[in-house]
Structures are given as C-alpha cells and as structure tokens.
Amino acid sequence: MKMKDLAIKTKAWSWIKRASILLISVYCQLVVAPSGLAGPSQETALSAEDFHQKFSWYGKFSSLKTRFVQKKTIPGLEVHLEAEGTLSVQRPDSVTWEIIKPGAMKVLLDKDSLSIVSESGKDQEVQRWSLEKIPSNIKEKLFVMKLWLNFDPSGLYRQYTIYEIKPNQLKFVPKENSQIGFSSIEMHFHPTGYVSRLVLREDSGDLLDYTFTKPQLESR
Amino acid sequence: MSKIILSLSILSLLTLGFLYAGGRLIDSGQEVFFPKELGSKLTAYKDFPVTWWNFLVWDLGQAPDAQTWIKLEELCKALKSRHSGLVKSLECRQDIIQYKDIVQDWIRDLPLRQPLPDEGSFEKIFKKALTKASLPLGSEILSLLRQDPFESYEELIRLSSEKAGIRIPRTEGFFYDPALHRIVVPVQFSFPPERDSFTREFLDAFSELCKKDGLCTPWALLGPHGSTLENKAQIMSDMNKVTTVGLIALAGFGILLIKIKRVRLLLLIPPVLFAFALTVGITALVFQKVHGLTMAFGIGNIGLSVDYGLHTAFNVGKKGVWKSNLVCFFTTAIALVILSFSKTPLISQLMFFSLCGLTIATVIVWGMFRWFADRLQVEPFDLRPAASKAKALVVTAVFVVGISLSLGLSPNMNLSAMDYQSEDQRMFRKWIYENLDKRNFLFEINETSPNPESSEWSQERLQWAKSRSIKIENAALYLPNVETQQRNLATWKKFFCSKPAMIPSPGSVERQFFAPFFETFDCQSLTERGPDRGIGRSYLSGFFSQGKEIGFWFPANDFEKNLIVQKYPQANSLQELSNIFPKILINELKWMAPLSLVAIWLLLLAYYRRISLTFTALIPFFTGVGLIFCCIWLFKSELSFITLFALVMVYGISVDYGIFSTDLSGRDERVQNGLWSAMLFSGITTVGGFIPLVFSKHPVLIQLGQTVSLGIVGALLGAFWGVPYFIKKIH
Lengths: 220, 731
Prior knowledge:
The complex is a heterodimer. Chain A has 4 helices and 13 strands. By secondary structure, chain A is of the alpha+beta class. In chain A, strands 1, 2, 3, 4, 5, 6, 7, 8, 9, 10, 11, 12 and 13 form a 13-stranded antiparallel beta sheet that branches. The radius of gyration of chain A is 17 Å and the shape is globular. The N terminus of chain A is likely disordered. Chain B is built from 29 helices and 12 strands. Chain B is α+β, with helices and mostly antiparallel strands. Chain B is elongated, with a radius of gyration of 34 Å. At the A-B interface, helix 1, strand 3 and helix 3 of A face helix 6, helix 7, helix 8, strand 4 and helix 20 of B.
C-alpha cells in the first residue's frame, strides 16, 4: 500500500466513524417516524410483540424527506452548536444527511459505499469509501444501521432495550456490548405520528438534540 | 594432598574475586565491534531519537476473529498506558491522542508554516470546522478541532504515516499481513538502544500481556533496541556458559591428574587464574571496561602459559627448556602484538588482554620453577612417536587438501559475523525488510555547531531535493525557512492586530467554541513570536541531538543516489557504513598476516639458523590450518573475518608445538619423553581452554572457539605425526 493511501485512510477512518454514528441517529428517526403511538406513562420495557406492532407501518413508503435543526451541547462548555439541514431516505438502502448551516456538508450512504462531501461549488471535496474495506468495529456500527435500514424489528429488539417512558416518547438503551457510540437514545413523537425530536447522548457525554419537521413521504 | 587443597583454595578464592570484580567491569555493548571511523558515525546516528524506531513483530498463528482484534487493542492500550515513560510512540491503532504534545506544538507553529488565508476564507474555515463539530464526534477529536479549526493536524498525520514506510496494509488499525497472520507494531522508544534495561522492561511487559491473552508466539523486536538487547543478553549468557563449561573441564582435568598421579600439575592453574584476574584489572584501567567477549576468549590465551609450565615440569633440570619456552612465548607474542594494532576495538582489546595475561602468567610460572622446581617436577610418560612415512603423508594430505578446499571458500567480511540473531529474529527480519519502503536510505549529520536561529543546512537540502523530485526527510520539511516564517507570521499579525473587527467577537459561538485557538493566537502573542528553527519542538526534536542535526534521503534509484552523494559527500547509507568494516579488515589482514608470518619465521630462523629446521617448526601450523579448512568445508561452517583473525592466533600458538618437537632432535630418550608428554598435556589444556567457546551461541565466540580448537588439534597432529619424519629426513 502506498504511503499516501495510508495517510488518506487515517483521515478516512475518523470520518467513517463520524459518518456512521451520524447515520445511526438518522435511522433512529427513520424507524420511529411512522410509529407515533402513545404508550403507558410508566417507564416499562416494551415486549417484542408491542415493539413489532409499533413498526408495522414502516413498510408502506419508498422514500422520506425531512428538515432538521440540531443543537449540540458539550458538558462543561457554555456553548450550543446549532446546525440545520435535510434528511433524505430512499428505500431500501440509500440515505443522505445534508447540513446546510453553518457550513455545507453531505453524508451519503448507499449499498456499496459511504461518501462525505464538504463545501460546495469549486471548493467541493468528495471522499468515498467502499463498505467492504472498512474495519470491523465500524462494520458493527453499520450492521446496526442496516437493521434500521431494513426495518428489522427483531434485530433492533436484540440490540436495544426499548422503554415507553411517556406517551409519545420512547427510550432506546443499547444492550450490553453494543458499540454504537450512544449511551441512550430518546425519541419524541408528534401526535400525528412522525418523530418531532430525537435526543442522543454520546458516550463522551455530549448531547445531540434534533428537531424534525413533518416528513414528506412517498408511498410504495 | 595438601597441594591439591592449596591449589583448589587459591582457585576458589580467585574465582570468587573475579566474579565480584568482573561483574562490575564487564561491558557487553556493541561499540567495541566497530572501528573508530565507523563506530563514531554509527554512534552519532543512534543518538538521534528519530532513529529509535523498532518493529514489534509477532505471529497470531491464525486469522484473527473480532474477539482477537479487541484483545489486540486492549494489549496496545495497556502497553501505552502502563509504559508511557518508555515509549514515545506505539503505532497500534491510529490514535492521534498519543501525539498530544506533538500536535500542540504543531498547531502552535501554524502561523510559521502557512500564511493566514484571505479574510473570506478565514470565515469559511471556521464555519466548516463548526459544521464538523456539530457531528457526533469523540471528545478527543472535538478538543483537537477546538484548538485547530484549520485542521492542520491532518497534514501531520500524513507526514507521520509516510515516515512509517511499511508496505503492509492496515487492518483494524494494525499493520497486518493476512497471508502469514503477522502483526507489525512500529514502536519508538524514548531512550537510546544502549539503555537495554529499559528495553528489557518493555519486552517483559509485552511478553506477559501477550502470553496472558495467548496472542503472540513467536515474537521479536527488530531494530536498534531489539538487536542491542539480544546481543548483550547473549554475550552475558555465553560468558556464564563458557565459565561453567570451563570450570567443568578444569575439574575433569584435575580428576585426570589425580588418576594418573600427576597432581602437582594442578599447581600450574592458580597462576593462570591469578594472571586472569590481574589482567581484568589492568585492561579495565587501560580500556575503562572489559568486554565480555574478551574475557570469554582471553582466558584461553592466558592458558598458554600452562604449556610452558608443563614443558618445564616434565623436564626439570634439562638444558634449554626455558630457551624453547622463551622462543615459544615470543612467537605467540608477535602474533598478539601485530593483531593488537587492529582498528577494531574488540580485537585490539582482546589481543592486549591476551598478551598482558600471558606475560604475567609466564613470569609467575617461570618464578615458580626458578624457586620451587623440585616441588613441581613430574615424571614424564614413555611417549616417543616414531617417524612414519604414512603418518607424514596424512599430515601433508591434511595441509594440501585443506589449502585446496580453502580456495573455493569466500570469507564473509560483513559486520553480520558479529551480530547474534535468535531464530525468531532471523525469521521475522527477512520478512519485515522485504516489506519496508525505506530500506535504502542515506543519512547525513550536520556536525557543525548549528545556529539556533538558522535552518539553512536542512533548507538548502530540501530545496535541492525538491528541485530534483528526490524524497527527503529533515526538519525543513516541517518548518519553512526563516524568511518564509517571517512572511507567514506577518500575515497573522496583521490580521489579528489591525483587523479586530474581522475576528469573531467575544461571546459569539465561534469565539466560545474555538476559545483554545483564540487563546493561542492573538495580537499580543503573535507580536511576541519570531521565526524558529524548531529544535525545541516535540515534532522536530527527533532530528536534533547534542547540538547536531540529522537528515534522511530516500533515493528511488542508483541515479538519484549518485546525485545525492556527488552533491553531499557526507551522505551515507547504513549499508555503505557497514561496507567500511570489511574494507578496514581486509586492509588490516593484508599487512598483519604477512607480517606475522615473516616476523615469526625470522625469529625461528634466528633461533635455528637453518631454513630446513625453520620450516619443520612450522609443520604443526600448516597441519592446523589444513584441518581448519577441511572441517569448514566438511561441516559447511561459516568462514568469516573472525576465522581469519583466529588463524593468525593459531599461527602464534601452534608454532610452540613446532619448536618443542623440532628441539627434540638428537636429545636422549628421557628428554624426548618429557617433551612429548608436555606437548600432549599442553594440547589437552589449550583445547580445553578454547573448546568451551563452542558451547556458546554468539557467532564471534563460536568461530573463535572452533578455529583455535581445530587449529591446536591439527598442530598436535602435525607435531606428533609430521615433525619426527621430516626431522629424520633432514638429518
């Protein structure tokens, strides 16, 4: 392997990590978007059957598009980082996370590759990696993502303990040995059924708070 | 019986004394292997921390599963955290956090390396960094981004990755060869190779962690630290082994003497041991330390004095005994004196040690016989080899065949003859060097007292290399020249001092989030800063040592290499430096071997005053040389410069047997019995002194032991079977 390739790969792995974590959060939104079910007020773990029931609507659309506003809170730092953008999903396995503010950046995932596009116009930089050549720990993260992508409730149930903490509010706690990078995932649903808010707590303690507008769906 | 008790008591006391004193004075380093002109360059090279990289290599035995990768990561983390004082960098996973200090210095010098982008770009850079920061990132990367929104650390990663120069691809962050299931971890230590106790500490920790998880068998540390430790450890181990075998041989010799009722001969041993202990002290005074190899081999040479003692003990009261001994002593001394002029410190020290010890022991033995001859006298055996044409033919055949076979042998004159490598090291070394991009490099050391303000030396080379597209690695690659630094710095000063409105205002998100950056770069700090050569920078410190600077060239082919050497004659490759060694040796052997031959031959001629007798005295040497070459050919042993030096020693020693046997001519039966008995015992004691070396593993000791032992056996053969026949012919 040439040294230049090595250097690019060094940079690449850190980006793949970031992108895959980001995409997991994207698919958290994807899965619960159509559910919108009210639950019991007690924080009780959902049974597998209840969980399957909540996701039964998921197979009814072929694409989804929604705008988001993100607020990142870093413990010990009196500052909130805000970002805005669009999330687009094309079934079965294509997703785009596009940030338009404060700068332009796009993360794209399809069946075979992961790409990151920084800036736009003449300053645009594109980095692309084949999914086959990424390390196993990142593969594990992508595997979890694929569960979301394929809307595999059985697989998800194996990965997470899911609590219905309030009506229209689910909490996903990764089970033991999970390495997805989040200590907890919280979802808030709009009464009409789509996810209005997603709160991710990273292992580092950083808090990512996403607010989504109503998704535009295209049925099959 | 009282004599035996006395002998053993003295022996024990001196052995204990030697063990106590010797343990404090022993040197097992590799510096003594290299002639001054080579050693100084190699030592200077090894002084630079940038050369303290080694490869930790191990076999996994099978393709690793996910669990194994996790264990490997844990192994790396444990090594890094528990031994951070010993390790500067450990390239297991690509972990920029371990380079925290380097990265901080690198970021701090950003205004020296590049000009501030235009105002529009400045704003864009901050927006881009903020966008990235909004993604889910690890706290370490986030902290880095806050310090370095320009993401200049990525350039540092690129340069560092290029420096590794390994062609093996990374899997799970590790350099992993999927065909052989081998892992390579480049490791840069924070201490020079000579501090081998630290290397040992690190390797013990690695070995323990490895074994615990069953991750690596076998493994090896390749590089300057690994090689130094392995050689030193082997020398010490060999010394212990040689001492043990030597003591066993001595005990066996003692038992033999008791059995054959020649116990008095044991009294010849204490002077040798005493001379040995005294010589250790004298050598240490002259050379500051005594090398382990010198001590292991030197005692064999000192033991030659026993030959003179035996000669005298079997011939007390006979005329001309000490005359023969003296000629024998001088022939050996001539060889030792001539070899002591070698530029290789080890050989020079070894010869000094041998000559000093032999002289002391011979004087003591002479004194013992001068004053207590009757107490040392022993009855000779009835031993008189008859002159036989058949035996003489065998002797001639051994010489002729040996010399003929030697013509087909090509000696290994490389330094590798002095380098001990374990089986694991040999196995991994070949493989790793086939997978290195930067095997063929040149290095150059700037020895002149460098100006801390100027980087002219490295800058000039970098510009020259760039103009010819030759790869180079020196300090200038990381920091531009002073003028460029000043220009770059001026753009930053101008922006931060004269355009405060363009800087994100206090309280803004940018200002708050990138606070570490704005704390480092403000008008005041930039105004106070000036150009820097980078000697104190952690990312450059490896290129500097004791006021000297090193630079590396990586020519793609011989044409580029020639260009570099023409322009910069001081540029050397390690390979070329190693080649200096055989050149020096060949030059030395060119004059040492003929001079020894001629000097000893002239001494013999002066002693015998007859050319025929002079040649007769050399028959044992000829047979010894013949037998050595026959055995090298037969057992496919290595013929190296060590063997050639040992041959010169064999010359000095074997001539003794030639003199003893030639001097027998015309003497009565009793004298003959005494001399042949003395010679037989001398042979046994000399071979007994050198044969323990064969049990060692270090190539230097093995070759010396083999050559001298075989040479003495051959010399005895020549003396017993050859000399009587040729003497008879002459008469």
